[in-house]
Amino acid sequence: TIYINSSPHVLPLINYLCNLQNSKVVVAHELELLGPARTVYELYKICKSDLLVIHGDLLLEKSYLTKFVSGCSPYISSHVAIHKRTYKKARSVVQTDLSLNVLSVRNLNQPGFLDGTENMVNVDSGVYFFPHTALDSFDRPDSDVAVASYLSKLACEGDLKAIENSGVRFSIENIEILKEARDFYQDNIRIFD
Predict the structure, then answer these.
(1) Would you tell me how many other CB atoms lie within 10 Å of the CB of residue 96?
(2) Nearest to 77 by CA among 40, 130, 123
(3) What is the tens place of the pLDDT at every residue in 9-22?
(4) CA angle at residue 3 from 186 to 62, to 5 degrees?
(5) CA dihedral defined by 160, 119, 60, 191, rounded to 10 degrees?
(6) d(CA 109, CA 113)
(7) What is the band of 85 on the pLDDT scale with cuts at 50, 70, 90?
(8) Cα–Cα dist 88/100, whole Å
(9) CA angle 25–30–34, rounded 5-degree value
(10) Which of 63, 140, 157, 172 could covalently link to 57 via disulfide, CB atoms 3.0 to 4.6 Å apart?
(11) Residues 57 and 125: beta-carbon distance below 8 Å
């Protein structure tokens, strides 16, 4: 089942997903802004099963998702996709050991970080897998809580693995990035099929 938490502006995507063979699509419209962690919590209450979560403002290369999903097997641990970004542009930093076990996930508004430098750090890519066993222990978050709060809890419990992705990824945060992503997509459509 595919759950989409959406605004009315995504009807073309919803119609496409509804027409996929063997798929069941459930559309939930927010009555209030839930925020990322609260959305995951509310979806889990509906489906009570494992969740693959992808931020809706991402344009991802097919190999990016394929690598992530295949890396999540066996489905016993939670996983987060990570990529490199300069510290200046990072919203949260994901610290891992050499085996890609996540040691910590911190929002940049938390104390104890380097100043805003050009150093490259691992950051949360907006793609997650949560087995239902991990979600059973989550409390209802406030609407302004980021998914990083869930990731931090799982990292502390030693139940979070990272999967590095170097494929094409656009986070559509403004109109300029949207235009850049659209142009890149049109010139490289084969890597998204």
Answers:
(1) 19
(2) 130
(3) 556 666 666 676 66
(4) 30
(5) -120
(6) 9
(7) confident
(8) 23
(9) 115
(10) 172
(11) no
